[in-house]
């Protein structure tokens, strides 16, 4: 994250409760953002920390109460699947397998287009040995996750309830995202008839979001809003 974007997000957090919801592991997201005043939901919302602003002053017991990990029982299985996927895709130039704690991401953005189907087939073959894991897709990425009813939309609902921000009469949630997996969060806000999803995309797309921005630079401008 650029210093300018970090400053913009920090500005928003001064006035409104702010969370980062990502498919990457929570630790990676925090390392990228580096703002303790935010809530973080990594692994597509399967690893949520409600706040880390004063974590250094908390006891270990206090820290535990702030974590929510609905897929914790799947962690050994995810590690095994990660190792299998690394081995299976080793021969595909450009393929990158990323361990995001409660999910595994197989990136094929740098793979020759003629090998995309081969990557998908290799992932399918590995998953045959893991019936409790499922496959979802994102932007040039195949996501392997536990077969639980949880996604970024469920994470948004959990955050709103846990932070006591689920009163539609007094709270207007705004969710900004640029990935296919963000559609679950857009859909939740639309179905609740409370809040607005904002899609970031240079091209028109079918979406559950109410509004759109064309680039991260426009997100930065929005985040520099002062009430």
UniProtKB/TrEMBL annotation:
<comment type="similarity">
    <text>Belongs to the trehalose phosphatase family.</text>
</comment>
<comment type="pathway">
    <text>Glycan biosynthesis; trehalose biosynthesis.</text>
</comment>
<dbReference type="InterPro" id="IPR006379">
    <property type="entry name" value="HAD-SF_hydro_IIB"/>
</dbReference>
<keyword id="KW-0378">Hydrolase</keyword>
<dbReference type="GO" id="GO:0004805">
    <property type="term" value="F:trehalose-phosphatase activity"/>
</dbReference>
<dbReference type="Pfam" id="PF02358">
    <property type="entry name" value="Trehalose_PPase"/>
</dbReference>
<dbReference type="InterPro" id="IPR036412">
    <property type="entry name" value="HAD-like_sf"/>
</dbReference>
<dbReference type="InterPro" id="IPR003337">
    <property type="entry name" value="Trehalose_PPase"/>
</dbReference>
<protein>
    <recommendedName>
        <fullName>Trehalose 6-phosphate phosphatase</fullName>
        <ecNumber>3.1.3.12</ecNumber>
    </recommendedName>
</protein>
<dbReference type="InterPro" id="IPR044651">
    <property type="entry name" value="OTSB-like"/>
</dbReference>
<comment type="function">
    <text>Removes the phosphate from trehalose 6-phosphate to produce free trehalose. Trehalose accumulation in plant may improve abiotic stress tolerance.</text>
</comment>
<dbReference type="InterPro" id="IPR023214">
    <property type="entry name" value="HAD_sf"/>
</dbReference>
<keyword id="KW-0346">Stress response</keyword>
<dbReference type="GO" id="GO:0005992">
    <property type="term" value="P:trehalose biosynthetic process"/>
</dbReference>
């Amino acid at each position: 994250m650029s210093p300018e974007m970090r400053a913009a997000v920090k500005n928003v957090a001064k006035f409104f409760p702010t969370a980062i919801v990502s498919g990457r592991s929570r630790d990676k997201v925090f390392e990228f953002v580096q703002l303790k005043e935010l809530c973080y939901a990594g692994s597509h919302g399967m690893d949520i920390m409600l706040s880390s602003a004063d974590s250094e002053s908390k006891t270990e017991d206090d820290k535990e109460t702030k974590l929510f990990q609905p897929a914790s029982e799947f962690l050994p299985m995810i590690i095994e699947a990660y190792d299998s996927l690394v081995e299976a895709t080793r021969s595909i130039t450009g393929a990158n397998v990323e361990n995001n704690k409660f999910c595994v991401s197989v990136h094929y953005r740098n793979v020759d287009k003629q090998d995309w189907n081969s990557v998908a087939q290799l992932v399918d073959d590995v998953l045959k040995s893991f019936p409790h894991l499922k496959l979802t897709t994102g932007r040039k990425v195949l996501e392997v996750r536990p077969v639980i009813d949880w996604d970024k939309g469920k994470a948004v609902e959990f955050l709103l309830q846990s932070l006591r921000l689920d009163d539609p009469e007094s709270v207007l949630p705004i969710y900004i995202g640029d990935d296919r997996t963000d559609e679950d969060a857009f859909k939740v806000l639309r179905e609740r008839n409370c809040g607005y999803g904002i899609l970031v995309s240079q091209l028109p797309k079918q979406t559950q979001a109410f509004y759109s921005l064309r680039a991260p630079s426009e997100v930065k401008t929005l985040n520099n809003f002062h009430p």
